[in-house]
Amino acid sequence: MSNARFRPTRAGIINLWDYRDQEFSFADGRLVLRGPNGSGKTKALEVLFPFVFDGRIEPRRLNPFAGEERTMKSNLLYRGQDSAHSYVWMEFCRGSLEDPESVTVGIGMRATRTNDKVTRWYFVADGRVGVDFSLIGNDDRPLTKKQLAEQLGSDSITDRPLDYRTAIDARMFGLGVQRYDQLINLILTLRRPQLAKNLDPKGLSQALTDGLRPLDDQLVLEAARSFSDMEEVGRALEGLAAADQAAQSFIGVYTKYLRQQSRGEIEQVSTRLAAVTRGVAAMDESSLAQTRSREARAAAEERFNQAEQALENARANVEALQRSSAYEGKQQLDDLAQAVSTLKLSTEQQADKSRKAQAALAQRGDEADKAASSVKRAAEALSRAEDELQAAAEDAGIVWTPLPDGSRSDQITAAVRGHAEERDGDVRVVRTALATVEKAATERTRAENSSRRGQELLEASKAAVLEGEAAVELARSQCASGLRAWWTDHSSLFSAVGADTSLFEVLDAALAEVGDEDAPALSAVLTEHTEAGTETLRERRREAEAEISASHASIAALKSERKAVSAEHDDAPPAFHARTDNRSDLGGA
């Protein structure tokens, strides 16, 4: 069986009082001393426990039953010698019984009759007395400090009680300096005379209380402040939660409003894009219809030219026949009759064609009238074009000689073609520019129409924007009023986390920027400026809760210990069988 804690296994007293070399053995960490009065039970406790743990030799700490005259010097020189060396020691073990971990602590003392001071040295060493090292030399005398240092090493020996207590606590207990001293004081309190006689629970409780270190006033003040801070933190957290809920509600409403406004703007843009698409489609259809009309006109002009050519050919054939010699000769009358018949048939056919041609001619006449009008307009346009051509030629650096009045079109054409051959590239540029101008004019007309419609839509949009801005300003004004009222109601809560009126100014500035693209959310601004204080409050609350839990645990442990003491589970040792008299009024154990 093994144990993780150190337990006392042996203790010893060497050359002190009436003990020459006395060893005491513990059973499972317990020691029972029995014997008649004067047998040395009290003296053994006096020089062993708790003296071995604190090293202090004040008479009242060594023996609560004795007076100030029972000093440690008297214990060392008990047999009347002039000087003496003495040791008290205690052995602790933990772990398995076969190979335990052993630690021995002890105190060496030297006293002389001529000096009232008792010289002490202390040691904490791994190992066991009589096994790993010895406190008695070969001459059967206790070792001096120097001899002990040669065995254990100077690092294991100290002259200061405080260092000795610190070394014991560090090696075996790990309580800390204050708790270790508190434990020694509690042990001394429990050793008061007649403590178990006529046991009074209240008196025992008071004795235990006296044995504890008084609480530090600063610690009590901090605990009280922690309770107060917890209430303030609770109120601050409730206020922050309410503020967060209000901010979230406002953000939800304002987000819905912005979403509706954006949807309306998007629908207006979509309507404008649809109108532009329809206009482009109509323009493409008009261009296609114009191209088909030009092709039909060119085909009609070609058919008219072919009909005129056929009529000229027929007239030429008739004139040729009338001028021929066969027509005048008698001998050729028959042939001519046949030819006439043939020509008659041909004439009828040609007449039929002529009628058709006349009809076509009438139609073409109308078209010719239209063409004449077009020619007239073309002549006027030609005149204007000639002027423009002359101006363009001058602009292009071409020397242009005006033709005389009455010049034929072929002359004009030849002149133009001649100049055109000289500036063919420039003409192409001019034609391209003219086409661009025509297209630009069309585009300008369409753009003016679109601009007019866009202006109307713009005016409507401006009106809608003004209305929306008015609604936004109204909403912002209402939100600002709500924010101011909220701050008035909750400013005291934020003062608990170190926030002042600057927080309200920051929130008011953030509210003024709501709706912008990069505007921060009010909840984010509030969190950013209160996060540090809130975290501090939470940390203080956690610390206070931890302190409260520790206090509750300590109170519960003390109550449990008090209950165990009150229950009196440990029986008193039986009376010595050789003593039959009543000893209740006598002193001693």
Automatic annotation (TrEMBL):
SUPFAM superfamilies recorded: P-loop containing nucleoside triphosphate hydrolases
Chain positions covered by the region annotation Disordered: 347-372, 559-589
Gene3D superfamilies noted in UniProt: P-loop containing nucleotide triphosphate hydrolases
Molecular-function annotations in GO: endonuclease activity
Entry keywords, A to Z: Coiled coil, Endonuclease, Hydrolase, Nuclease
Keyword 4Fe-4S: no
InterPro entries, per the entry: P-loop_NTPase
Signal peptide range in chain numbering: none
Coiled coil: 297-324
Protein name in UniProt: Endonuclease
Source taxonomy: Bacteria, Bacillati, Actinomycetota, Actinomycetes, Mycobacteriales
